[in-house]
Amino acid sequence: MTAICFAAMPTIDAEHLWSGGRDAYDRLPETIISDGPGHPCRHCLENIDEGEELLVFAYRPFPELQPYAETGPIFLHKRPCKRYAAEEILPPVLTTSPDFILRGYNEDNRIVYGTGAVTVIDEIAAYGQKLLARPDVAYFHVRSARNNCFQCRIDNIEAPALAEIGALT
């Protein structure tokens, strides 16, 4: 059985934005106030509480531009937060919806066709293990089933994870 780990947005990307850096579209992030659940921080993988300031910006969780490098809006606490560390445990943000899209990518960061599936929370780990057992799947993304927003990346625990390799810098 393949062991999986949940990888949050790299700290280098979060620090880039916290220090006034630009997003994947070369724009400054927008600051908004959270009105409660529904604003998951992609760095700590927790929901941003009502009344807290957050950044909303375009994020591309891929190392370079290419046709499969999806870019979309995500949220980040405006004040620095600690990166999600319990890599083998389902992160808190993945308990806020009944299901998510899981999609596999190969070593060249291209979608592996046939791997995308709307997956209920209780089956995320099992489907992830199934995907990562395939030789053509290097990692996969967990995305919102309703809006397709990037939530986190899942890697084989034995393989090098997204770790601190940034996408924005």
Automatic annotation (TrEMBL):
**Tree of life domain:** Bacteria
Pfam hit, one: DUF1203
Q: What is this protein called?
A: DUF1203 domain-containing protein
Q: Which organism is it from?
A: Rhizobium sophoriradicis
Its lineage opens with:
Bacteria, Pseudomonadati, Pseudomonadota, Alphaproteobacteria, Hyphomicrobiales
